[in-house]
User: What shape does this take?
Amino acid sequence: NKISNRNATAYGLIDRDFRTVEELNCLRNENIYSLEVAEVENLFLIECFIRALIAYKNESCDIEKKKIKIIKKLDQDKEQQVSNYVSSRINYHFKESHVRKGNTKEEISKYFDSFKDEINIEQWYSERLDKINKIIDNEDYEKAIMIYNNKGLHGIVEDVLGYKSNEYRKKALSFLQDIDEAKNILRNKFPTEINMIKEK
Assistant: This one.
């Protein structure tokens, strides 16, 4: 979009991953928008999508059992999830911040110490852990798939449905390709700005 004399506008659609609200807002200013889930694979974990798929396939699934299993898995993985979030936030801080130019060794040390002081690992870790614990305590499945980065979660759905490995992904893709209802369910999870582009 920064290219002069361009005749089109580019838009980006990315995973939410471990990005902060601040990061996401900065990206929005560049026409880059995030999904409402941690990663694109989690779109197939949306409850109404699974319900529509099993109805289309004329199959049965204990949706609540699947949701509880994913919440329990998040509880098991929360140390890793919190640590990955903090690591990502530190990387973002280094990328977006700059140490002021020092004209003496003392100034360099002073500015670098000030730069380091802005990284609050304890606070960031505690805040993220509290957020995840609240999601787990409330069994908030929708928020769980919004912040949970784990490409193996489809395996839990397969276990509940009695599918073979990778079978759920294949059936979900086929459902998405063939049925408008599936497209509409996922479209509703896209950023408003992206849907408006399609409407234009």
The chain is about 60% helix and 5% strand. The mean pLDDT is 90. The radius of gyration is 21 Å.
